[in-house]
Inverse folding.
């Protein structure tokens, strides 16, 4: 099949856990399945920056036997952590990041480090899109999305500062969930813009990623068993009419329209909702916030290792260091007003639907695509999820993004679970 | 003089910068003064965890020639960083923390690492109080406060999660400034509770610490020249009648009362103001927030190095890991209500005055004292400063804490500058 996806049936976390709990597969076998899949597939997909040589396999905990890939922007004590940069070649943190330790405490196996763009910014990793190897997998959590999409692992952890969870999830056709800000701990990740940096999760489908979130956090976030599902007639779904829509590909606009129709078909209360001006202005503030904070957070790398950084990264950090405190403060005021507008908006609607990206994964590996549909929600701190299901004429995934009010992660995941099934009708 | 302070005249940052700008002292001489003072004094004070062997002395930038001590909870690439813990003995981060890089970019000399309690929690460092070596210097930024108080350096950087800037500043009789949350970057510090961890500054007096803040950030925070000072008659100062006051030492209650009198004498609009119930409840939520977050942020250390951690730290992390998400969420709701109450309160008053600590530095080095007067303001994210000036009958410093609305750092520093002079009348 050349560059096309060949029998890359994804691993469902929910199915694996069910098999385990029914005694049909032990943790050792579950991990062996992943190691075998990685050995067979990763030479071509290049989703992994490092594969654990002898990963610790635990027999207790909700995630026992579940192999998780960790974006290589996140520290692991037992595997190299390079942040996608030659600066950190051979770097071995003394301890895990908080999210990795949490996963281990829940029984997970840390199967390897997944490829990231340099410092989770724009310089691509070597990873290809499992659906067509000539296309980008998206970024910056490139390897996390691709490893799940290629059926190598059932779960992966990534991060988002602009669109680094939603976009690769959309391009690779998997569920990618960016929780409410601070729901998952960021300690031990390489920060880029700390007020935006958010840890997110990848799994095959919505029920899988919700299960992962529930098991990691101990929160009531699961969408299985089916009793956890929502009554669609009580949920207002708004097609979000932001200005970015005009720049989306026709195939994506069609998919979004279909998504709204399917949502209505299964009983959701669907309407259209305009973008408040304050939120449009907040989106424009994203770059100032991100770059100013990157100027601070990555300044130490620039000071010592400028020669080992890409020019786009150097320029961004320098641009950030040149932003005045008053311009940063003004941007933060825009964010504050945008958040107030978002709270008001979520009084009128429960779930917003937008594209996860302007279209399917672009051809080529030189860029990771465009985060224009994601930056606002990172800035708002609202939970967002990529719902897979639609495809373009070439068979490439088209992702629909659902967003809910800050703190309404359970509602978001439940509604997304129902929507995902509706999209497949 | 035995354990008493012997000629420990403090170094004023403002005076040093003035001398430099007038051509009376070059950066080399300024740094040499500090190195000499450290060599003479630190054997007894033990403020430094590490002294730079050949610190880089810069000739350009607003902080050229200014020697800064960095709390050893904050990363430095050119000096060991041990976080006050044997776990990190010999640890050499690849890059500086953001605040250290910022200081270097402004021309500062990183003269050494100042002693911290273990992980900036409660297990004391070896540092003694320069005013009486039998007393604690406070913590967790023990060395930062003591090094400034002993006249070894003009400026130091610390951190506060409960009361770790205000308390040691009060016990050592220096200005300690905790800015509004996120005003100074935390990337590259060892996090304990990320939603609380705040980088703060130490200098001899209020004008010095304001100058340091202005030079580091490029923000309009300076209180010198005198034209920057405020018109007291336009500033409402409220003596904050929180429940904690009853537990304060008589000497401290007397100092606070004197502080209010002096403020009124110089023209401030002084009154008393009660503590809103929502803020009292928020204070009670501090431990749940801190411990839950420490359970996540320090869980990775516990998992690997339990044997090398103090029992108080192990217990706190384990208690934190046992806190349920719903209890944490409830605590966060209390914080949210407390912040709303604080915003309302700062509609009625501009500056609150409270003790920085229940009294002067307690006798003994086994504990670092009590953060009960500081935790609320860390939780609120409001700027706070210790104003030195008062002393008890034994000559030990008594610190008055001033607090302003979130983002009103300039107002706080300007008012504190005027108050500090009034306290000396």
């Amino acid at each position: 099949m050349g560059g096309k996806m060949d029998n890359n049936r994804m691993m469902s976390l929910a199915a694996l856990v069910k098999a385990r709990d029914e005694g049909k597969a032990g943790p050792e076998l579950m991990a062996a399945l992943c190691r075998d899949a990685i050995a067979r597939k990763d030479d071509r997909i290049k989703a992994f920056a490092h594969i654990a040589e002898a990963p610790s396999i635990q027999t207790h905990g909700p995630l026992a036997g579940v192999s998780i890939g960790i974006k290589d922007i996140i520290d692991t004590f037992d595997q190299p952590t390079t942040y996608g940069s030659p600066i950190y070649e051979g770097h071995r943190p003394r301890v895990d990041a908080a999210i990795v330790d949490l996963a281990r405490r829940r029984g997970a196996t840390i199967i390897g480090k997944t490829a990231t763009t340099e410092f989770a910014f724009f310089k691509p990793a070597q990873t290809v899109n499992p659906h067509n190897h000539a296309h980008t997998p998206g970024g910056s959590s490139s390897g996390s999305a691709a490893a799940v999409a290629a059926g190598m692992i059932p779960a992966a952890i990534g991060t988002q500062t602009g669109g680094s969870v939603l976009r690769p999830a959309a391009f690779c056709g998997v569920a990618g969930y960016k929780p409410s800000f601070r729901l998952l701990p960021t300690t031990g990740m390489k920060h880029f813009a700390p007020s935006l940096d958010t840890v997110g999760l990848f799994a095959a489908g919505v029920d899988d990623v919700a299960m992962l979130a529930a098991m990691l956090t101990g929160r009531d976030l699961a969408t299985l068993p089916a009793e956890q599902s929502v009554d669609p007639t009580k949920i207002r779904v708004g097609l979000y009419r932001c200005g970015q829509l005009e720049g989306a590909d026709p195939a994506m606009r069609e998919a979004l329209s279909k998504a709204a129709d399917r949502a209505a078909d299964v009983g959701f209360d669907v309407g259209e909702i305009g973008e408040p001006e304050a939120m449009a202005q907040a989106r424009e503030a994203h770059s100032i916030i991100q770059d100013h904070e990157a100027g601070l957070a990555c300044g130490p790398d620039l000071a010592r290792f400028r020669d080992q950084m890409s020019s786009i990264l150097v320029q961004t950090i320098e641009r950030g260091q040149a932003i005045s405190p008053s311009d940063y403060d003004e941007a933060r005021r825009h964010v504050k007003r945008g958040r107030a507008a978002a709270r008001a908006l979520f009084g009128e609607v429960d779930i917003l639907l937008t594209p996860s990206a302007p279209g399917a994964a672009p051809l080529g590996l030189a860029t990771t695509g465009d985060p224009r549909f994601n930056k606002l929600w990172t800035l708002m701190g609202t939970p967002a999820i990529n719902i897979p299901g639609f495809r373009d004429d070439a068979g490439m995934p088209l992702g629909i993004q659902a967003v809910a009010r800050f703190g309404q992660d359970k509602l978001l995941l439940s509604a997304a679970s129902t929507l995902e099934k509706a999209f497949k009708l």
User: Anything to note?
Assistant: The radius of gyration of chain A is 20 Å. The longest helix of chain A spans residues 325-348. Residues 63 and 108 of chain A are 5 Å apart (CA to CA).
